[in-house]
Amino acid sequence: MNLPKDPVMLLSVVNTQLRDHYSTLDELASAYMVEKQDLIDRLASINYTYDADQNQFI
After folding, report:
1. Taking the model in full, what pTM does it have?
2. Residue 2 covered by a domain
3. Across-strand partners of 57?
4. Could you give the number of structural domains in the chain?
5. Which residue, 15, 26, 37, 57, could crosslink 48 as a Cys pair with Cβ 3.0–4.6 Å?
6. Full DSSP string of 1-58
């Protein structure tokens, strides 16, 4: 599965994957072979930040 380019769709997919399958953002990024910082930057563009304690972008 490729990650969506649209930031809002990306948010939905990433948070769902984090909730259901990955215990950290590092694990998700590795599984999808993407840079963790790229995900952080793309979701920051819609004012979301990663909360490691909740393992979600909020």
Report:
1. 0.95
2. no
3. 50
4. 1
5. 57
6. -PPPSSHHHHHHHHHHHHHHT-SSHHHHHHHHT--HHHHHHHHHTTT--EETTTTEE-
